[in-house]
Every structure is written in structure tokens, then in C-alpha cells.
Specification:
The chain is built from 6 helices and 3 strands. The protein is mainly alpha-helical. It is globular and about 75 Å long. The termini are far apart.
């Protein structure tokens, strides 16, 4: 038994030494491969091959149709990672999701991403490309809240970027990322919107017409 314990302790010591050596070597090479491409975006690992493929397909589409492709972003409240068939749920949970599964099969399926458990920071992340802590939109904004600082004042939204590049942008559904002046859809880059500006039972829908070009 003593011999066994001695061998076990030697093996563990050797393993820890190997792990430490490997860790130092990798750290010396550099773990961080991210690059910041814009001040308003989080650093990301470059994927030149994927970016080139996407650029080629976009170029082919624009040449063939004479226009830019439409972009549709869907955000579903209270949808879990494992609720969809493409991620192990769907029919297994008694609720098939064939259309979304088809999108995952024929498109790009992301398996490693940053997510939040509530809607406001998720919406902010989608609209800015930044983690919610950067904008301060880390929790749902309530009707009783009276923000003293506009979190959108220093943000560049995806809607604004698209509008600046010839797109007509619109928003429909739940907003929930600020109702004060300067924080509504038309203030952050959307051309048109039909949104619910308050959550739960105290709900009102508003239509904001912008520069309708199509």
C-alpha cells in the first residue's frame, strides 16, 4: 500500500508539473487571438476564410439581383438553448421546431456565444454588438425607472449602420431598452417602428413613421 501511495503521489506531481509547464508555454505564445475592429464592438477572433466566403456570396447575390439582401433578426423571449431541435430539444421535448432546425442546418449554427438570462441586455447586445455591461443595459428597464443618463448616447446601433448603408430599417414587437427621450427606436437609428413600449400588463403600442422609402 505504501508503494502504491508513493507511486500515486509521484504521478500526480508529474501531472501537475506537466500542466504547469504546458500552461506557461501556451501563455508565452499568447492565448488572446482577438482583434478589435471598431471602438463600439467587442474584440473578436478573425475568421478570414469565413469572411471571404460571406463576401463572395454577397457579391454574387448583388450581381445577380441588383440589390442588397434583406436582413431579418428575430429575438424570442424565454427561449432556452436546449428548447430547439437543432440543439437537442424540439420533438424530444414534445414541441418540434422544424423551420428553425432547417435554418440551422442550411445556415450557420453558432455553438459558442455570450448570452443573458433576461430580455433587455439580450436586445442591447444584438443591437450594439457589445456586451451589455458596456452600455449599462444589464437589466430590464421598468416603467417606474427614471434614467439620469441615456445609455444609447454613446452607442452605435446596427439599425444606424444599416441605414447609413442604404437600408430601410424597421422594428416590430417589444422594445424594452428605454422609453425616455433619446432612447426610443427612432432615436437610435430605426426608420420605422411599431413597438410595445411598456412591459407586462401596462402595455401600449406606438407607431413611429420615419423616412419610408419602400
Amino acid at each position: 500500500m505504501k508503494a502504491f501511495n508513493y507511486l500515486l503521489s509521484c504521478s500526480l506531481a508529474a501531472s501537475f508539473t506537466l500542466l504547469a509547464t504546458t500552461s506557461h508555454a501556451q501563455e508565452a505564445k499568447g492565448w488572446d487571438r482577438t482583434v478589435r475592429t471598431a471602438d463600439y464592438l467587442e474584440p473578436a477572433i478573425p475568421r478570414p476564410a469565413q469572411e471571404q466566403t460571406a463576401a463572395d456570396r454577397l457579391r454574387e447575390f448583388e450581381t445577380r439581383t441588383g440589390r442588397k439582401p434583406n436582413i431579418l433578426i428575430l429575438l424570442v423571449d424565454d427561449l432556452g438553448y436546449g428548447d430547439l431541435g437543432a440543439f437537442g430539444g424540439g420533438a424530444m421535448l414534445g414541441a418540434p421546431t422544424p423551420n428553425i432546425d432547417k435554418l440551422a442546418t442550411e445556415g450557420l449554427k453558432l455553438t459558442s456565444a455570450y448570452a443573458t438570462p433576461v430580455c433587455t441586455p439580450s436586445r442591447a447586445a444584438l443591437m450594439t454588438g457589445r456586451i451589455p455591461a458596456r452600455s449599462g443595459l444589464t437589466r430590464p428597464l421598468l416603467a417606474s425607472d427614471h434614467p439620469t443618463k441615456n445609455p444609447w448616447a454613446d452607442e452605435v446601433s446596427a439599425a444606424k449602420l444599416l441605414s447609413d448603408n442604404g437600408y430601410v430599417t424597421g422594428l416590430s414587437g417589444k422594445w424594452h431598452v428605454g422609453e425616455a427621450k433619446g432612447m426610443q427606436p427612432q432615436d437610435v437609428g430605426y426608420d420605422d417602428s411599431m413597438v410595445s413600449c411598456r412591459s407586462s400588463a401596462n402595455t401600449r403600442s406606438t407607431w413611429t413613421a420615419g423616412n419610408i422609402r419602400s
